[in-house]
Amino acid sequence: MTKKNFPLLSILSLALIFIVGAPLLRAWVPQVPTGQWTAIQPDPEETPIDMLQARDGAVAVPLQNGRVLIAGGVAPDGTPLASVEFLNLSGDFSAGAPMKVARLGHTATLLSDGRVLVAGGTTTGGEATASVEVYNPQKNTWTVTQPLQGARSGHTATLIDNNFVVITGGAAAGVPVDSIEMYDAANGRVDAAGSMGAPRAGHAAAKLSDGKVAIFGGFDGTSVLATTKIFDPDTLSMTAGPGMPEARAGLTAVSLLDGSVLLVGGTDGFQDLASLLRFDGAGFTGAGSLSFGRQRPAAILLPHNNSVLIFGGTLNGGGVDDAVLYRPWSNTVVPTGLPGVMRATPAAAPTAFDGALLAAGGDGTNSAQLYGYATVKTDKDDYFPGEPVTVSGSGWVPGETVTLALREVPYVDEHPSITAQVQADGTFVTSEFAPDDGDFGIMFYLTAYGLQSEAETRFTDGGAKIDKIYRDAGLSSETETIGVGDTLYAAAVSLKAAGSYRFRFLDAAGTQAYLGPCFTGVTSAVGSYAPTTRSTATPWTVELLQWDGSEGTTASTTCSAGTGAADGDNAKVFYVAQATAYTTPALSVSTAMYGAGATAYVVVQGLKISQNDWQTIWLAPGVSCANTAGGDRPDSDASGSLTSAYLAYQPANTFVDASNKVSS
Questions:
Q1: Strand pairing category for 454-461 and 382-383
Q2: 577 bridge partner residues
Q3: Per-residue pLDDT reduced to its tens digit, 555-611
Q4: 573 phi and psi, to 5 degrees?
Q5: pLDDT averaged over every residue in the chain
Q6: For the segment 37-92, what is each residue's pLDDT rounded down to a tens digit?
Q7: In angstroms, how far is CA 20 from the centroid of its own chain?
Q8: Alpha-carbon distance 527 to 606, whole Å?
Q9: How far is the C-alpha of 37 from the C-alpha of 317, rounded, in Å?
Q10: Contact 303, 270 (CB under 8 A)
Q11: CA angle, 349 as apex, 317 and 219 as ends, to 5°?
């Protein structure tokens, strides 16, 4: 397994190096024709591969290690399932550790640390459950956490900033629920977060570009609703949004690349709806129509394509077997290949392979398919003026010419289209475009047009930001975790020479620990600080405050026009670790001095929370590796500590350098 070096922490000149493993390598690359559905068949001479268990209403989540997790649902005999399986990178399905509770109508949310949160649902006996559990892919284990405030099924779960999940509505004992709850992944807590003002089941929810959560329609126990609510997770406040053109429940909501939300299908209480709506945070506009009305269709934003694939769902209680693509850039609905299977309640998710989406179950069987689509992407998300943008694509028609069109937001000027020739394997690469000085701070939307396919991506040109953080002044060793007393270096780029900037370091409590000097007349800068306290479950933050006329600030060359502004691009979180040595395994007396042959009992805190595959290595002055301390350690827990009671090591020699220090 490939290892990645993490910071070095020293106790009595014995340094602890923490190392984390890398994802597994792919073993199979599916060949899925663009716009078509195919069976999963790694070996063309073997029978196509399906799921291990027939299931309807399961959830599917693409994991960070490349596998797709499929959990729960209902068996053909109507029994809720606790079983879990994976679509592996090798193209087969394998069983995973089962959930603690069988579930249907549950939610599954991929957290930013790679774990999966599963909440609520209908369990054995037909009753809604309040249970919550978290899956750790590295350990293949489920851990029960604090339950919801009340049982619910058919609710929504929306991941927002800082690894919080907003849970709304649903039903218990057939009665719609009004309450909102928030799950905090840092400590496993579920807290009440207010109410929606009316109970809702069969509603939809999506995150908006400003971090708020929009809640659409639903059924309140008496009527289908046309109302919209906007929940602010920072203030736990709820405000009324604009009403939808018609009432609808059983709809699906998808957040689009530009921050707007697409609403698909549903019922008005009398008929299933075919219409699509687009919500921009202020109002609704029409977005075309499906071939058939339907409730709860699968609607997936395709990675590196950014069309929405819509298929499945129910019409008059039966399954629907067609599929369409919604293209946000042209606000159009276009047909695509027919699945050939009526998947009323499928499990669906993008796979780790470019241009391949998994659809499984939802038709009373264990059948599984892959859908193929064209992709376009850039090698970076952000570029300096004059820096070439490398654009690549896959899934295009061999030999065709793909046209790449650029659109600026906000609009400044026009850029000519670029063309790229597709190779025999359906891929292309071009680096013909580079943003210029006049494009500073612009968001580019890049749309690719071919004979049969279209796809879109986006990137930015500069804008002040903290690019990377390091643990050395030479900016050669990138990091996200350092030791107490060690100096962190933050490198800011794309600064405006006519503006001014300051670095601010915030401790784990969010309190300003250090405000750096004012940088003026520069296009890049480095801020540094040596934290004196460790992280808790909450990391430290370094921000770049800017006075350059952007982010709502007034340009200033003295860092004096108001308080300055920091946005998501110019802030980075990092963890500050601390090792404490004790004389006995009881960990009652700490010390910094040991004699030769004595055992040092060490506890490490302030690490990145829930980080996988830590390993400790002890180093002595002038000695490259003194002891490996027993190999791999457990994952760091939700408080940022190693879960083992302590790390023990018995140095065999006396060293001249006997100070308690942090080195790198």
A1: parallel
A2: 483
A3: 788 888 766 666 555 788 999 988 888 888 777 788 777 666 677 777 788 887 766
A4: -100, 150
A5: 87
A6: 999 999 988 999 999 999 999 999 999 999 999 999 999 999 999 999 999 999 99
A7: 19
A8: 22
A9: 24
A10: no
A11: 40
Integer Cα distance of 380 and 377 in angstroms? 9
pLDDT tops 80 at residue 7:
no
- The pTM (predicted TM-score) of the whole model is 0.75
- Alpha-carbon separation of residue 107 from 110, 130, 134, 495, 556 (angstroms): 10, 12, 12, 42, 48
Q: Tell me if 80 sits within 8 A of 57, measured CB to CB.
A: no
Instruction: Give, in order, the Cα–Cα distances in Å from 150 to each of 80, 172, 176, 256, 323.
Output: 20, 8, 12, 31, 37
3-state helix, strand, coil in the chain (%, to 5): 0, 45, 55
Distance in angstroms (rounded) separating the CA atoms of residues 374 and 355: 6
Token pair in block for residue 472: 């050395």
Instruction: Give me the long-range contacts of 509-518 (CB less than 8 A, separation at least 24).
Output: 509/536, 509/538, 510/538, 510/541, 513/540, 518/558, 518/559
Q: How many Å apart are CA 126 and CA 105, to the nearest integer?
A: 11
CA atoms of 133 and 116, how far apart (whole Å): 8
List residues bridging with 643 in a β-sheet. none
392, 432 in Cβ contact below 8 A?
Answer: no
Using DSSP's 3-state secondary structure scheme, residue 628 falls into coil
DSSP codes, 238-302: EEE-PPPSS--BS-EEEE-TTS-EEEE--B-SSSB--EEEEE-SS-EEEEEE-SS--BS-EEEEP
Residue 376: exposure state from Cβ atoms within 10 A (0-12, 13-18, ≥19): buried
Asked, as a colleague might, if the bond just before 80 is cis with ω within 30 of 0, I would say no
